[in-house]
Amino acid sequence: MFNRRLAEEMYGVTNEADLRKKLYGTRTDLTDAEFTCICNFLSRFNNPKYLEIGVYFGGNFLKVANFLKENKENYHLTGVDLFESIAQYSAMGPDLTHDILNKWNILNVAYEADLFKFLKSCEINSFDLVRGVSDKAVREIDKTFDVMFIDGNHTFDQTLKDAESCMERSKVGSFLIFHNASSDIQPDPQYIEKDGGPWAVCEKFKSDDRLKYIGLFDRCSVFEVIK
Questions:
Q1: Tens of pLDDT along 85-142?
Q2: Are the C-beta atoms of 225 and 170 separated by less than 8 Å?
Q3: Domain presence at residue 90
Q4: Rounded CA gap, 48 and 102, in Å?
Q5: Which residue of 23, 59, 70, 141 has the fewest C-beta atoms within 10 A of its own C-beta?
Q6: How far from 164 is each of 50, 94, 167, 211, CA to CA, in Å?
Q7: What is the arithmetic mean of pLDDT over 10-35?
Q8: Domains contained in the chain, number
Q9: 71: number of Cβ within 10 Å
Q10: What domain range is 105 assigned to?
Q11: Cα 33 from Cα 185, distance rounded (Å)
Q12: In this structure, what CATH number is given to the domain that contains residue 88?
């Protein structure tokens, strides 16, 4: 789904390989308040373990990694995405980590190995990338996490599956952060109109006795695990 016209207009390149080099470590739409929210909750832990569902080209993942590298002696990040396997799962609909549709209108598939090499070149060393359907991949990870950022497929069903898998990899005191969980900031209303999306999942969890609702930071809804 390479868009040569946009690639040339926006990045000055005319082929997919060169465009990929330009995109790794970019393409994050988090506001300053949302990024600060993630960092503030990670700062509560001495040796934070961070999970991100929906890594894409690693824009937010790299920013979080740089924050941890600069502020913590010990940390570890885990990123989950379908990466190039997205085509394999294109018929799965809501089970996709990201939509098969080209969300940025230029290129929508990041390659796991290329992103891994890019992150290493940025001197990020304490991380793993996991390729697979997000909720299933998380359940196969043999560790718990302190902060889990859920930003994969934004259907109600898949967001709920991702959240429940994160709960299985959490402990008391862990935090779940849902992106695109506002009711009024674009593009969140379109997810609500479709099937409720992340906002409806968060409304459901506000009455879940395993969790304590912390608050909404722009489009990031935060819960603390209390059971």
A1: 876 765 555 545 445 444 556 677 888 999 999 999 999 999 999 999 999 999 999 9
A2: yes
A3: yes
A4: 33
A5: 70
A6: 16, 15, 5, 12
A7: 90
A8: 1
A9: 12
A10: 28-225
A11: 13
A12: 3.40.50.150
Q: Are the CB atoms for 109 and 1 separated by under 8 Å?
A: yes
Q: What is the DSSP letter of 168?
A: H
Q: How far is CA 163 from the centre of its chain?
A: 12
Instruction: Give the residue among 216, 24, 43, 37 at the shortest CA–CA distance from 120.
Output: 24
142 token code pair: 């043999």
Judge if pTM exceeds 0.85: yes
Q: Give the C-alpha separation, 22 to 118, whole Å.
A: 11
Q: What is the 3-state secondary structure (H, E, C) of 77-110?
A: EEEEECHHHHCCCHHHHHHCCCCCCCCCCCCCCC
Asked if residue 15 is part of any domain, the answer here is: no
Which segments of the chain does DSSP mark as H helices, in order? 4-11, 16-23, 32-42, 59-71, 112-121, 134-139, 156-168, 188-195, 197-205
- Which amino acid would we find at residue 122? C
CB-based burial, 122-135: b 16+ in 10 Å, e otherwise: eebeebebbbbbbb
Q: Which amino acid is at 120?
A: K
Sequence-distant (6+) residues with CB within 8 A of 61 are: 52, 55, 77, 79, 119, 127
